[in-house]
Structure formats: C-alpha cells, structure tokens
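Q: What structure does this chain adopt?
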Amino acid sequence: MPDYHIHTLPNGIRIVHKQVQHTKIAHSGFIMDIGSRDELSNETGIAHFWEHMAFKGTEKRKSFHILNRLESVGGELNAYTTKEKICFYSSVLDKHFDKSFELLTDITFRSVFPEREIEKERGVILEEMSMYLDTPEEAIVDEFDAVVYDSHPLGANILGTKESVSSFHKQDFLSFLDRNLSTDSLIFCSVSNLPFEKVLKLAEKYLGDIPEIRKHRERIPVSHYVPKSVTVEKSISQAHCVVGTPAYALSDERRIPFFMLVNILGGPGMNSRLNLAVREKHGLVYTIDANYATYLDTGLLTIYFGTEKKQLKRTTSLVLKELKKLREKPLGSLQLHTAKEQLMGQLAMAEESNMGLMMMIGKSILDQGRVDSLNEIFGQIKNITATDLVDIANDALREDQLSFLNYVPA
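A:
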C-alpha cells in the first residue's frame, strides 16, 4: 500500500490520511478503541445504543438536521459497533469533505442524549433485536460467543438484552463515555484525493478545541476456555450449527498462516474445502463457511452451516473430517501455491474499496501502531510452508477443543 500520512494533535487525537488521486469521493470517519467488551455487566448493549444516539441530537443540531446534512448533497453518514471498536463515518463528494468533517466531529464529541430520543430509539433497537432473533443464521453466530467466552464481556451480544436496553437513560451514556472515551485512543482517518495539508488544516479547525482526555482503562483478559456442546430447540424449519474454538490474537505471528488455513477451509471462494465437500459433493447445505475474528488478546474461529434436522449429524461429521485432513495431510506444492495466490488476490481486491481501506488503516493504527503494506503481507504469505499449516492445524483445530451450538427445529 502506498504511503499514508499521520499527525498527532496536541490533544492526542491522531489524524491519518491516504491520498488517492483517481476518486472524487472522500471517505472519512472517527474510529475509536471502544466496543461492547468495555461495558460493565449492567451496561450490556450501551455501546451499540450510543452508536444510534449519536444521530439523535448534539449541542447545536436536532436529529433531522444531522440526517439531512450530508444526504442533501448526495452523501452518506453511518456507524458501526463491534466488540472492540465504534466508528462514525461518511462518504461525500470531495467538495463537501469540510461539511462531513464538521458533522462527524459534532456527533462524536457533542451528543446530548435527549431523554425523549432515548425512549424512541429504545423501541427501534428492540425491533432490531427482534428482527435479528428472527434470523437464526445470524443469531446463532453471535450467540456462539457466549458458548466460547461464557460470562466474559466478549461473550455478550453487542445488541444487549431487552432488559438492559430498556433500562438506559442519559446518565448511563455519559458515564460510559466518561469511563472509556480517550483522545489518545481514537483516530480520524480519511481516504480521498485531497492533499494531506488540507485535511490537517480542517483537523486543526474542528478538533483543535477538543480537550485532551486520557483514560487508563484495562480490559478484562479472557479466562480459561472450556469446550461445550449446546443444543437449543427453536421454532424454525432448518437446523443451524456453529462449530468453533478460540484462536490466535491479533499480535500472534501465526495469525496470517491461520487466516490462510481458514480461507482454504471455508473462505469466500466456491472452491473452499467445506463448500466442495458438503454442498457440491453431498448437497447437504446451501451455505457453509468459516470465519476467523481477531481481538487484541484472543481470536475466534467459527464454522457455520444450515441443513435439514435429519442431516445435522452427517453434516457435522463431514466438517470434522475436513478439519482432520488439515491436521494430517500436508498440502501438495500446487495446492499450496494455489492457496497463496487465492488469498493474495482476495486481499488485493479488498483494498480496491476506498471505504474499506479507510477503516482498515484506522483500525490497524489503533491496534498495532502501523499499517502493513500489501507487499509485506504478501511476503508473509509466500513464506508459509505446508508444514507450517499442518502444525497450526494441530494446534488450533484439535477436535477435543471444539465447541458446538445447534439450533434445531422444535
């Protein structure tokens, strides 16, 4: 990846910018090292609720003015919440970048959490929760976190519970922000054709008067893992299953080889081993995939599929068979070469999205203090051997360390 610029303001906020000449769109956002794992036991869901409330009123704007500010010029304003990050971001024509920067600053630092809007948005989130629960292929993946992480904050659902969401008021949001918001753990990141000098000038204009806030926050480390098998009866027509286990943390040198192993197993390509073995050969599923999520101190492998209830046992056996192959049979030279080329191609295409690139840059600097170039990542991939993959499979894909969550028709 070509060079990016980074500058730290006196208040600790880092400004990161990558100039891309061939675009008229400016993507930017505040990425904060705050997520659902930073909630107290009585705050489950408040990080996600804050994401919603940022659009519901600031010191100088009401909800309509926030929503209309960028959409009236063809732009987009959005947000997301994960276990470890919250992001407010926008996409606009480059000539409206000033406008989007100011608005993002306003909703990030000057939200006022009107009680009337909290009450209305509470209903919206409860509806979001109901919609999510009516989608078992999504719900089961999130609920699997609780199987693996148990009572640890990483095991809690990002949406929270109906009880917790129903309990929040203005002071709860202010307390959560007071405990977690720190200017040295948030980044304003942008990708556009604008020169860095202009971005920095606007940063000084809009962020210069934000007071320095430095909080020392220690996240609860992940405790001992105990494999579990859980089956839940639901009013559904298809059985759903997630198989998984804790995996390598973001800083672990085995992360890239393991990511490649997961890509071989159940990545987005139709030629993944799980897709070929379970869907193409036996016709037992419509969707089957494997994913690897990384956190600062742990990771999580999940394999998801849906199938007929009577085929659940057979399909699970086929999944375990593919895991066993990875542990016992090294890839041949052609298979290894193909796997490397496929992964490098996927990573290169991911960087074609300037929006995704903006978020990736900001998150990488927050988590690691740097952004690895594609060439650096490609170098790591090219150095992976078949023996490396077998060793990692035997360490991370042991059958006795797998947990299972099944949703079955009642």
